[in-house]
Design goal:
alpha+beta; Phosphorylase Kinase, domain 1; Transferase(Phosphotransferase), domain 1; three-stranded antiparallel beta sheet; globular
C-alpha cells in the first residue's frame, strides 16, 4: 500500500496511470520543489536482467536536457520495493484538451506552433540514441508561458541493440507501452521498435490535430490495434482541402505501415515540417 509519504517525497494527488504505473504530483521537502512521481507496477521489472536494463536506460534518459522535454530527476526504489521515476512537474494544458477544443481540426498556424517544438525535443532525444515509444497527446503539455513539453521520457530504449541479443525487456515493454490509438504497427504486433516508432506516433498526433479525430481509434483496444495493422487512414487532403498538400503527404508518410517507408527519425521529419512551414 502506497501512503502519502513515499521515499522522502510527499504524494499530493494522483494525476493518472495505466499499464506502466501511476503518476502523482509530489513535493520534495529537501529541494522544496514540486515534481511528478511515476511508481511502476511490481511486476513490470520482474527479473534482475530487466531491472538492470531499466536502470541503465533511464540513467541515459536523465542526461536529456532540452526546453521541450520534461527533465527526469531521479530513478530509485523505495524501502518497500517500489521502483519509481521522479520527473519535472509540468503545469499546463494537455494536448488532448487542446485538440478537444478544436474538433474540426487546429488552424494551420496553431498546429505548427504546437508541433514544431515537440518535434525538436523528440529529434534531440533521437540524436542521443533514445526513443520515447509512448508519444500521445496526454504526454504533451503546453505550459502557462507557452512552452510545449514532452512528458514521460522515463520509459525509453536505446536505439542501439544489445550485443547479447537479449531483447526480453524490449519486447515486454513494447507490448505495454503506447496507448492503443497511438501505437505503431510494430508495437501492436509485439515486434522490435526504433525511432520510426516515434515517427508513426507523431504522425497519428498530427493527423488528429488537423482532422479533429484519431484515424485509428475504435470503441475497444483490440479493434483499434486491428485497424492500425490493416487500415490506411483517409488522406488528410480530403478532410482538410485548405491544408498544404506537402503537409498532408508528410503525415501520410509518417503513417506508413512499413517502417522503411517512414522518415528515419524525428530529425528528418522536423526538417520536412520546417520546410513546409517556411514555404
Amino acid at each position: 500500500m502506497i501512503g502519502p509519504e513515499f521515499s522522502g517525497y510527499k504524494l499530493l494527488e494522483k494525476l493518472g496511470g495505466g499499464n506502466t504505473g501511476y503518476v502523482y504530483r509530489a513535493f520534495d521537502p529537501a529541494q522544496r520543489r514540486y515534481l511528478a512521481i511515476k511508481i511502476l507496477p511490481n511486476d513490470f521489472l520482474i527479473s534482475k536482467e530487466r531491472r538492470a536494463r531499466f536502470i541503465r536506460e533511464t540513467r541515459a534518459a536523465r542526461l536529456l536536457s532540452h526546453p521541450a522535454i520534461a527533465r527526469m530527476l531521479e530513478v530509485g526504489t523505495s524501502d518497500d520495493g517500489h521502483h519509481f521515476i521522479a520527473m519535472e512537474y509540468v503545469d499546463g494544458r494537455r494536448y488532448d484538451e487542446i485538440a478537444q477544443a478544436h474538433q474540426d481540426g487546429l488552424p494551420e498556424e496553431t498546429f505548427f506552433e504546437l508541433m514544431q517544438p515537440v518535434l525538436e525535443g523528440v529529434a534531440y532525444a533521437h540524436e542521443h540514441h533514445l526513443v520515447h515509444r509512448d508519444l500521445k497527446p496526454t504526454n504533451l503539455k503546453l505550459t502557462g508561458d507557452g512552452q510545449p513539453k514532452v512528458l514521460d521520457f522515463g520509459l525509453v530504449k536505446f536505439l542501439n541493440k544489445e550485443p547479447s541479443g537479449d531483447d526480453s525487456f524490449q519486447t515486454m515493454a513494447g507490448m505495454v507501452l503506447g496507448s492503443a490509438g497511438y501505437m505503431s504497427p510494430e508495437q501492436a504486433d509485439g515486434l522490435s521498435s526504433d525511432a520510426r516508432t516515434d515517427v508513426f506516433s507523431m504522425g497519428v498526433i498530427m493527423y488528429e490535430f488537423l482532422a479533429g479525430r484519431n484515424p485509428f481509434q475504435c470503441k475497444n483496444p483490440f479493434a483499434t490495434i486491428t485497424k492500425i495493422l490493416t487500415v490506411n487512414p483517409v488522406s488528410l487532403e480530403l478532410i482538410r482541402p485548405d491544408l498544404p498538400l506537402p503537409l498532408c503527404q508528410v503525415i501520410q508518410k509518417c503513417l506508413s505501415k512499413d517502417m522503411d517507408m517512414r522518415f528515419a527519425d524525428a530529425g528528418v521529419l522536423l526538417q520536412a515540417i520546417t520546410q513546409i512551414k517556411g514555404g
